[in-house]
């Protein structure tokens, strides 16, 4: 098969018009929904630019530098939090990419260009199925079980167990989370992982990234919780367009703001996808660090609340960039940014700035390259 046609890229510019000055309550500064995030280096090899990501092996103590033990690391994090003022705080995120899925196998089999422009748009090839919601291969299951052994081997050295677990709503992530953490932290019944829509893989085009219904997930994962507002059906995925990288970074920034606002834990686990990992690293200014399937890396993140948040001037343009994995070979996927996609980006931009200061976002115009969104400021 020969894949020739036009490359469908789209650029979505979201313009937010601010009609009044910010009225964010100053008493809430400490838990502001808006903060800046910074990766803190010095603890893990993976945050150093000199570390070779290809030869890096997370099995080697998750990259903890040799001048730390898990106990002295914990003390150092405790000290950072103890010595910081009310606008600054630190968390450690154990970020895990799901184990190998059927879509990963297919992408290697066909090669990335043919995968992106053709095979990813299908649910399978007759002998292998990867969509919707690609599942783990036996190797993927093994990787997750092997990680469970790895974590168990670190426990005698004071490894800080995550106090809460967050999962992408894709079953390959929830299964990975379960195989890795079940008999370490979940079986005890003290923690119940939380499904977050903001942790799903890059939205759109790829059938492997279309999620199952809430009812299905509830039945398959009775011990998991759903974040507030988690809807029954996948309303975000669309076959026509794909979320750009910039939008994904806004989405992960909004995840981080949620995390700080809703969870006092210092140590949390996040199980998701490669695209989520790169957006998360980007949201905190960590160097790029690509993870193989099943890999886990800790990231130390500092958050500073924005004091007296100053809204951008009227009609500030937030560029969310071009489609993240636009086909580099040819395939017709349609070039119109759908209104659904545009309102998705506006939703994430809304979270990124401030939810409290306005209530409704309306898409006012959409062209093939631009979406304009108007913020209606609530008056009370
Ligand atoms: C910003 O928007 C307000 C309300 O629409 C308007 O009165 C004001 O003139 C605008 N300011 C600028 C600099 O465009
Ligand atoms: C460990 O080494 C790193 C540099 O690689 C340094 O930033 C950090 O302060 C050192 N920590 C201790 C406790 O020695
Ligand atoms: C990084 O590691 C890979 C795999 O071991 C190796 O092929 C590559 O040359 C290394 N890169 C550098 C810059 O050392
Ligand atoms: C399994 O875990 C061991 C020890 O942590 C590691 O050395 C090995 O590479 C892992 N194997 C796979 C296939 O992930
Ligand atoms: C809080 O501490 C941080 C880090 O030391 C500092 O940059 C910031 O200005 C402090 N904020 C206040 C309100 O003191
Ligand atoms: C379908 O894809 C898998 C890899 O994902 C491959 O092993 C298999 O041979 C393919 N089937 C056909 C009929 O091409």
Automatic annotation (TrEMBL):
GO terms for cellular component: cytoplasm. The keyword Nucleus does not apply. Pfam families: His_Phos_1 (PF00300). SMART domains: PGAM (SM00855). Keywords: Signal. The keyword Coiled coil does not apply. PANTHER family: BROAD-SPECIFICITY PHOSPHATASE YOR283W-RELATED (PTHR48100), HISTIDINE PHOSPHATASE FAMILY PROTEIN-RELATED (PTHR48100:SF1). This is GPI anchored protein. It comes from Kuraishia capsulata CBS 1993. The lineage of its organism: Eukaryota, Fungi, Dikarya, Ascomycota, Saccharomycotina.
């Amino acid at each position: 098969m020969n894949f020739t046609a036009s490359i469908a890229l789209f650029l979505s510019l979201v313009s937010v018009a601010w009609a009044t000055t910010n009225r964010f309550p100053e008493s809430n500064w400490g838990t502001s929904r808006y903060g800046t995030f910074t990766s803190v280096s010095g603890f893990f090899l993976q945050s150093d630019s000199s570390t070779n990501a290809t030869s890096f092996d997370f099995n080697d103590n998750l990259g903890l530098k040799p001048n730390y033990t898990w106990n002295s690391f914990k003390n150092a994090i405790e000290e950072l939090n103890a010595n910081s003022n009310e606008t600054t705080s630190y968390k450690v995120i154990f970020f895990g990419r799901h184990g190998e899925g059927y879509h990963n196998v297919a992408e290697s089999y066909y090669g990335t260009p043919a995968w992106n422009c053709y095979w990813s748009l299908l649910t399978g090839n007759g002998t292998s199925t990867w969509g919707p919601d690609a599942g783990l291969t036996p190797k993927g299951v093994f990787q997750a079980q092997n990680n469970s052994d790895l974590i168990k081997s670190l426990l005698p050295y004071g490894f800080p167990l995550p106090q809460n677990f967050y999962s992408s709503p894709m079953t390959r992530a929830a299964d990975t989370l379960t195989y890795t953490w079940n008999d370490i932290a979940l079986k005890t019944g003290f923690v119940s992982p939380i499904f977050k829509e903001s942790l799903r893989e890059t939205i759109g085009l790829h059938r492997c990234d279309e999620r199952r219904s809430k009812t299905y997930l509830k039945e398959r994962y009775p011990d998991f919780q759903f974040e507030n507002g988690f809807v029954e059906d996948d309303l975000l995925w669309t076959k026509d367009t794909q979320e750009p990288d910039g939008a994904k970074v806004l989405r992960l920034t909004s995840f981080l703001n949620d995390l700080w606002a809703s969870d006092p834990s210092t140590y949390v686990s996040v199980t998701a996808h490669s695209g989520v990992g790169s957006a998360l690293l980007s949201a905190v200014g960590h160097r790029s660090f690509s993870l193989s399937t099943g890999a886990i890396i800790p990231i130390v993140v500092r958050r500073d609340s924005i004091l007296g948040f100053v809204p951008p001037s009227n009609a500030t343009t937030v560029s969310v960039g071009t489609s993240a994995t636009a086909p580099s070979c040819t395939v017709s996927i349609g070039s119109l940014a759908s209104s659904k996609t545009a309102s998705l980006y506006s939703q994430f931009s809304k979270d990124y700035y401030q939810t409290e200061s306005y209530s409704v976002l309306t898409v006012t115009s959409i062209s093939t390259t631009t979406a304009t969104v108007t913020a209606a400021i609530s008056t009370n």
